[in-house]
Amino acid sequence: MSSSLAEIASRKRLVLLVGQGGVGKTTCAAAIAVHCACSGRRTAVLTIDPAPRLGTVLGLRRIDESPRAIRLPEAIAAGGSLDAFRLDTKRTFDRIVERLAPGPDAARAILEHRIYRAVSGALGGSDAYMALQRLYELDEEARYEVLVVDTPPVIHAWDLLSAPLRLAALIETDAARVLANPAIALARAGSRLAKTSAALLLPLLERATGMALRGEIAQFVERFESVLVGLTERSSAVEALLRSDETSFVAVVRPADSSADALESLRKTFATRAIELDAVVVNRLTPPPGRDRAIALEERLTGAAEGTLEAVRAMEADLDARRATEARALGRIRKVVQAGDAMSLVELASLEHDISDLSELESLGRALCGAAGSGSRPDERRADASTLRSRPRASDEL
Length: 398
What we know:
Elements: H1 5-11, E1 14-19, H2 25-38, E2 42-47, H3 53-57, E3 68-69, H4 73-78, E4 81-86, H5 89-100, H6 104-112, H7 114-123, H8 127-141, E5 146-153, H9 157-162, H10 166-172, H11 175-180, H12 185-188, H13 192-209, H14 214-243, E6 247-253, H15 257-271, E7 279-285, H16 297-300, H17 308-339, E8 344-349, H18 358-369, E9 380-383
Parallel strand pairs: 1-5, 1-6, 2-4, 2-5, 6-7, 7-8, 8-9
Antiparallel strand pairs: 3-4
Helix pairs in contact: 2-18, 5-6, 5-8, 5-14, 7-13, 8-14, 10-13, 10-14, 15-17
């Protein structure tokens, strides 16, 4: 049974948008979050991208890990709200240490320790892992009814899905012994994931500690091991959250052959973890010709400057070729969607201009999450942003 974006926006607790870079994930995430808020839900939108794009499209001067309230009169009237966050990887890891260490003194000692700086650089540098830990925090707070997440590019999909297992793999290497004697790490590593973790950490630990600091290491390990154990327990909760019926993954793609290939690869990657994509948004489709296309070009351009006829004829030929290419790619994308019977499909035309204010985000949200319209299947439709004009264009920031 497929879930439309309307159902996802109204019922799910966690919505993760995935896809390649430059396809419009951030704007779609913002639009879906705005729609959820305007529908009366307490909503948060989180981006993992260090660029300020989410803040810009939401009209914020600054966006960081602190909740930034977005004023939406329609959401307020409906009883909803919207906060925006941007992931701060290091601060998230530091805060986890502060919560999971045996006490304030131990936490301070860990945060200031050179070994922590080396380890946090290796593990905290995984934005996907820390993003999921941030989701754990937000979910635990139960402050929001729905969390919408703008994830890293699809090439990191496996990193996103495997993130909850990484610290379990690190503990499998026996953290205390590794830190006390880094040379035995690879020998202690059991699984392939554990071996990879050990291989990454060894050079960092060797450089950070040296052989003369064993006593200091032993003291550090005693304090930090409780953090590792706590993180592993949290990771299990995050893994359960990703698999929950209250979570949906939405892919955003362009109408191109490369996108069809990437979508099929993404579907298979998710299938290895028994996770289904719930919806696919095909973004930036070239709109169909206008109604005046039925009128002869010579008649439409009567009185135009010399050379205009040839220029417009060449432009229309280029657009027709683009539509044909997109139609073939869209056919392939539809086959991928049909292969995953839990997926629904939304087709979104390229817009005349970049999304520039909250009212336009509201319109885009309604277009994405509105009731199903025409399509070859009940769960396939073309989105209609009724207050946003669309036209053919070579590039968009949507």
